[in-house]
Amino acid sequence: MSHEQPFTLESKGVTKAFSTTDPPTQVLNGVDLAVRPGEFLVVMGASGSGKSTLLYSLSGMDRPTSGTVRLEGRDLTDLSDAEMAQVRLTRMGFVFQRAYFLPNLSIRDNILLPALKAAPQAQDAAIARVEVLMERFGIGHVHDHGITEVSGGQLQRASIARALACEPAIVFADEPTGALNSSMSAEVMDVLSEIHADGVTIVMVTHEVASAARADRVVYLRDGQQVDERELGRWSAAQAHEREGALLVWLRQHRC
């Protein structure tokens, strides 16, 4: 009998309340979500709907108030902070709107740092893997540049390379194109589409229809609850305009 987990990531009844206000602010209200292996899932919703809070709760960057989150069948809810940090380092990759690179390190060393921290005994393998990633994403020629010496698009491609450096089970992306122009956004989404085609599981938060149209599935949040979802299937450039149009119509139904 196979014991393979049907989902890479699964949440059940996830809630999140912030006690810094009186009364406490309820941001997530019992989110059930299942992400299939190799799926590209996008979370959308109006400002304040809980998109980023959900991403942080799923990835262990913040703890849900109640409910459970499982990664590869492992319950993350009861892990200690140190155990959760190790899971994030070794089994998760992250791409944010800002790169959050160290200014005193080169592009290459910023990409390499998490892989060396995760497996210091495998330095040669990590270096080789990072070099392949940089060449693949078109940033090999700027490997020794500082973070202020490259474009925003190059910096985000470096962020994706860093996210993949530890060969994670899942990549979380929070508005990865939010600070980029349309040309650079397309470059970054091309890279995400490429790694998704390789079988990488991605969960992304975005408000941009063109970016969301790259996903296999889009879920919509309202007031901290998933109220709808739309299956898009595999993305192809030839269908980009059609997918964006259909997604836009669907979002308008939710007054996005």
In short:
The chain is of the alpha/beta class. The protein has helices spanning 51-59, 81-91, 107-118, 123-136, 152-164, 182-197, 209-212, 240-253; strands at 9-18, 25-35, 40-45, 66-71, 74-75, 92-95, 170-174, 201-205, 217-222, 225-231.
Question: What would your notes on this structure say?
Answer:
The model has no long low-confidence stretch (mean pLDDT 93). The protein has a domain at 9-100 and 170-253: Rossmann fold. It is globular. The protein has 256 residues and is an alpha/beta fold. It has a six-stranded mixed sheet, with helices on both faces. The protein has a four-stranded antiparallel sheet with strand order 2-1-4-5, covered by helices on one side. The chain is built from eight helices and ten strands.
Poorly predicted spans? none
Give a count of the beta strands, DSSP E runs of length 2 or more: 10
**Amount of helix:** 25-40%
- For the report, how would you describe the main beta sheet? 6 strands, mixed
Name of the CATH superfamily of the domain at 9-100 and 170-253: P-loop containing nucleotide triphosphate hydrolases
End-to-end CA span = 45 Å
